[in-house]
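[job 4417] fold queue: 2 targets
>>> target A
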Amino acid sequence: MFLKRKIFCTNQLIVLFMLFCANLMFSQKQFDDDDIYKNAAKNLYAHPEKTITVSEYLSINADSDEERSKALNLKAEAQILQGNYIVALNALLESLHLNSENDDSPAVLRTNLILSELYRKLGIIPKAEEKLNFVEEKINHNATENPNKTSLYIDFLTAKSALLYEQKKYDEAIKVFDERLLEIYSHQFQYPISKAYNQLAKTYGIIKQWDDSAKYAGKSLQFSLESGLGENYLAYAELERAKANFGKKNKQQYLSEVHQLLASSEKVYDVVLKKNIHQFLADFYLSEGDNSKYQFHNLKYLELNESIILSQQKASDLILSLTENDLKVKDNQRYKTNHILIWVICFAIIILGLVFWFRFRTKQNYNNYKEYIKKLKNKQQKSQMLVPKTESVEEVSKTPQFIPEKTEQILLEKLLAFENGTNFTKKSLTLQSMAKELDTNTRYLSEIVNKHKQKNFNSYINELRVNYIINKLRNEPAFLNYKISYLAEESGFTSHTSFSTVFKAVTGIPPKEFISFIKKEVSLTH
């Protein structure tokens, strides 16, 4: 009896310990996901593509509908920046469906706010007003009393002003803002305050009140710098300030800002902002009489404008053909199939193990890749040096001398010239043909290669061919898109299989993976 009781107590302790560990792991995951979300939101304007990837991860791994809705909202904002309006619309409608029973949660209000801005961009003003009215009804009466909703409230004011701006109600768009409120929260919510000041600068600019426009653009720039949003976001304020100084004919100011906007035009990800920058630059160069630069920026503006209009039209057509309720029905049907995930869990565990193994192997291969590239660069630097004098040849020579020193020196010089050429890519190349080409005999050539290259003739030629194609891949980007069979042909191998086998033997990495590492380097440098 005592033994049974002891076993029972022990089992209880084990269960409690497991529950404690599970709770600890769950809490840690929540903290980690929250940090990931904050970093992704901070990098929204600088790296929208990365933000999309992170938001999709958070959406899949969310522990609640609220968390998933936040991730979908973030994804939608990034997609809107890139002009992918249909993808953004679907993400937002899915977010609404998740929280249909909790319509005053911060996530739902944010979803409706983003939807309003999307509808405004698409020119569907009634729907934009409908969403804004919904947000106003839920938030306006207690916004500043709830810190969690204050930031959202400031964004709501900015969205409302933008909608009035779109309707050409410029005086009302300015009166939306309470400057006292903006000042109170300026150091607490730099990001939304910066957007609000930028909207004011834009509105004053359209009615040609340039001094006020420049003032608010300057404030927007100041808060953007303080919040550390980076140059991709600063460009919004820089454009409005440049337009204001251009309108005031303050040439000294706008000339320096034009230089900054030229750099920004290549870096910003917001397609609408990029379009507006090129439009301003086209106007500027036209006023300066620089016809070639005017034509360049005007063409860029027209291309972007056409692309945006096409994307807007597709999204508008989708909205007209499908109501939100239609999409919700489809979502309900899709969510009913989620029970299949139970059957997938076991399989997912196996896949997870394979992923960890693959990541470890990839990391190891990437380190090998970097080491090989480093050795290749060192070898190329050495190959540019003069061939050693006869004395140094004597020093490194540890085998009986069968070749006259002068002949050996001449052969080394010819071998260096051969390596710097491309004759080693000839498929018909043999020890005999190369000896004939270098005006020597096979015994001399074989001994020189063995002695100075520390490998046999076939290995020597194969390594030259592999290094040749690696240099092509690294220095001529077009080669990164060619098939392996073409690379094999280009470097002198008789088949795809022999090329792949030799390439891995020389570098330790299969050619496809090696090429993926080069592509990774290229993307990082750009």
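>>> target B
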Amino acid sequence: MATIEYLRTDPDLPPVGVVDRRPITPVKKGIFGAIAVLGAVAWAILAVVRGESVNAVWIVIAAVCTYVIAYRFYSTLIQRKITKPRDDLATPAEILDNGKDFVPMDRRVLYGHHFAAIAGAGPLVGPVLAAQMGYLPGTIWIVVGVVLAGAVQDYLVLWISLKRRGRSLGQMARDELGLVGGVAAIVGVLVIMMILLAVLALVVVNALAESPWGIFSIGMTIPIALFMGVYLRYLRPGKVGEVSIIGFVLLILAIVSGGWVAETSWGADWFTLAPVTIAWLLIGYGFVASVLPVWLLLAPRDYLSTFMKIGTIALLAIGILVTLPVLKAPAISEFAISGTGPAFAGSLFPFLFITIACGALSGFHALIASGTTPKLLEKESHARMIGYGGMLMESFVAVMALITACIIDQHLYFAMNAPAGLTGGTPETAAAYTNSLGLSGPPTTPEALGQAAADVGEESIISRTGGAPTLAIGISEVFSQFLGGAGMKSFWYHFAIMFEALFILTTIDAGTRVARFMLSDSLGNFGGPARKFKDPSWRIGAWFCSAAVVLAWGSILLMGVTDPLGGINALFPLFGIANQLLAAIALTVVLTILIKKGMVKWAWIAAVPLVWDLVVTMTASWQKIFSADPKLGYWKQHSICQQAQEAGTLCLTAKTPESVDAVVRNTFIQGTLSIIFAVLVIIVAVVGALVCVRALRSGGAETTESPEEPSKLFAPSGFFPTAEEKEVQRQWDELAEKPTRTPEPAS
């Protein structure tokens, strides 16, 4: 067999793909062997060494080495045995190109869009909250979980959607599982999606509230992205490098000018916004971003923010390697066993695995991988780089977030992440509270907490829950040590806040668009006049579904913003459970398709993470529903506050009768949703198991893959083109310059 194969679909056109089968060289084998040994040493140090002398560098080394080996070998195994990409086949983006939702996109820009869309609050908030259990459990779950579960799910969901004209997860469940399982999946996915988007938006609100610097800088990214979209489509098509440099310069200018604006009287007046106001602005932004053409705002904004995301995380990794910070959190804390942590209640199992969601395994990613991304993919071979590789990058973000939470003083960490009902909201009461927790290190003082806030240009950092402010403190701590000194802490803190808000906003706009796709598909199943909803080009349907989606998650967002229990503390466990239950639905659909296609030998690749996910999420759901601990159980909280409401007294952290009413209402909603989520996922899992058993007995079954069509586009298969691919690209470029012959678009 030839080591280099050129794929042709038209004898009059250059090749549409290049397949490279050259074996790995001895030098590369040696390099990968050295990486594996270095990673093993790092893991051994993290697992064995105890005390306060463990350096954060070892976490970075262990994670990076594991990612390199996993991508090179495990994802290649999945590609060769399951996905088997063919670049001579047209993707949905090529077949259905409509210039709005289906657009063949440069793989580098699409990597940025996909990474930005999946990398929302989860890899930032979850690891920061989970740091209360120590650094070791979180590190293991983030790194091992992404290799065997998270990246596998993202890659395989992208693959099955790619083979079905970019169909949404809910619709694929309906097609593959039948009516009962499909309806349960569609309802579950849509309802869960609303919770996920609301919590993501809530983190943005908490990060930007009363922050004129952050509001101005984030607002400026919208016109910058619009300019980039027009530039890349009309002014200088294909000039990705040019627009990248321009966008990066404008982005840095937006950050720096945000500091200037915030120091002016008019800037402070105009851009200092209350949480409820920011919530309404996010609702409006979500609608507009979801109905505009994907090339105009969504893709360039995600690509732009990816510079900021990957650049900041890479710089943070370099900063850790330079400054060598020591981990101040213990390897495993007492809260991991007692389950009484202030940041969130619950023991290590199962709550660590739902709190750290997006960095290891995230059902939300399945919505992106079956939403916007498969509609933009140029070539089937790009799915591995974007699906598996994109998730590894997000996992690295989660690792960095965990490190930043573990290198800061633990008294400061808990003062920031415990709700105001525990800290009292003042430096004096917060210092007394954290000193009562029995943490390692010297006790803190009100002056120390006040100075920590002053160092980053904030009035207070007490009970700044949600994870984002804690991560910003950690980033400012590392950056200020090797870039500018202590005087730059304020700049780096606000830079980090904007960095985090960019992360999450790109998830909100992409998530709203994906939810619109799902709702359209679902309404189209009713037939009759509703069948028009299945047409992605029908703009009235797009506007209607977008409005319905933003109103749904917007109402939950407003509930969280005004929640007396601390919206993020109350909603994040529900977010984590919902997110992981969504992953169970996605993995069930993937496993069912693998069994139907006769890939029984390799079905364990999806089955192992599915079984683990179901065990974790069902255990967590049971505890949140039935636990008699008021810190844990939604219905126990509801019962206590309902009795207080009837008696005219206060309850839990509610300080007013109105707050008691809000707790009663919110805990009822949260408890009810927990039950609904669990029941729907159990239905999907049972139906999926029955479909798999029938397929095994019959030796396979029909799937709903779309008919194959030949491709007439070329793109390199990897991030960087090979010499052979550069030559083929030159042939296509020459062909495009000839006025007498241009390739015909695929029908």
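[job 4417] complete. Note on B: The radius of gyration is 25 Å.
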